[in-house]
Amino acid sequence: MEHRLDAHDVHRGERVTRVPIERSPLSEEQRRKRRRLAILSILVAGGVGVTLVTYALLQPGPPLRILSVAVSPERPAPGDTLTVVAAVQGGTLLMPVSASITFATFFGDGGGGGGSMAHAGDNRYQGRLGPFANGTEVWFVVSAATGSEGPAISPEMTLDVGTVARNGSSGIAIAQVTQIPTNPDPLDTVVVTAQVTSKSKTLQVSFSWMAFYRNGQGGGEGSMIQDTSGNWTTGGMFVPPVMPRFSGTVYYYRIAAIDGTQNTATSAVYNYTLR
Fold it and tell me: For residue 36, what pLDDT is reported?
C-alpha cells in the first residue's frame, strides 16, 4: 500500500528525498549564438560611446574673440618688464586657441618682435615684453587663431616707457598718409607715403608693420626715404617678399618721426586686408 507524506509526517522529521531536475545541456550552436550576442552587445555599446564622444568633440565652440587685454605696469619705468594678459573666447578640444603677441618700439629702443603667449588657465594667455630704455614708445597687438578660425586681433595698445619727448617747439607732425593700392591683393606691392614737417632740418622717418594670418603673425620695420616732392615714402620696400602673403592676411602699419631736437611724432595706426 502506498504511503503518502502529509504535513504531520514532515513535522515528525521524516526524511524527504528531493529529485534534481535535469536540464538539457546547451548545444554547441546555442553556445555560439550566445557568444555572438554578447560580442554584438559589447560592440554596440562601444560604438554608441565612441559616437557620443566624437559628437562632443566635434561640437563647435563659441566664436573666436579676444575679450580683453591688460598690461602691467601701466606706466612702466625704464628697465621694467611688461606682463600682458589676454582673455580669449573660442576653440575646442580638437582645435584649441593659440594666442600671440606682436610688438614694435620707437625712439629710445627701435625694433620689434613677438611670439606665442603661454596658456594661464581660464581662457587666459600671458606674455612678457621688455625691458626697454627710457624714452621708448611700445606698440603691441594680441592675436589669436584656431585650426579653423582667425585671426582675431585685439585693439592696438601703446605705452610710453619713462618720458617720450612730444609736442616740442619744433612742431614735428605727420600728415597726409596715403596707401597705393588701397585694396591690394597678395601679388601687389603696397607703397605708403606721408607728409612730415618740422622746424628742424634734421629728420628721421620710419615705418613699422605687423601681419596677422591664421597660421601665425609677423612684423618688421624700415626707414622711409624722401621723394622729389618732399614727401616720405616706403618705395617698394613695404611688406618684404619674405613675408607670407595669403588672401585674408591683415596688415597694420604705423609711421614714426624724430627730428634734430629729439622731438617725436607718430601717426595713427592704419590697416588693410589682402583680398
Answer: 75
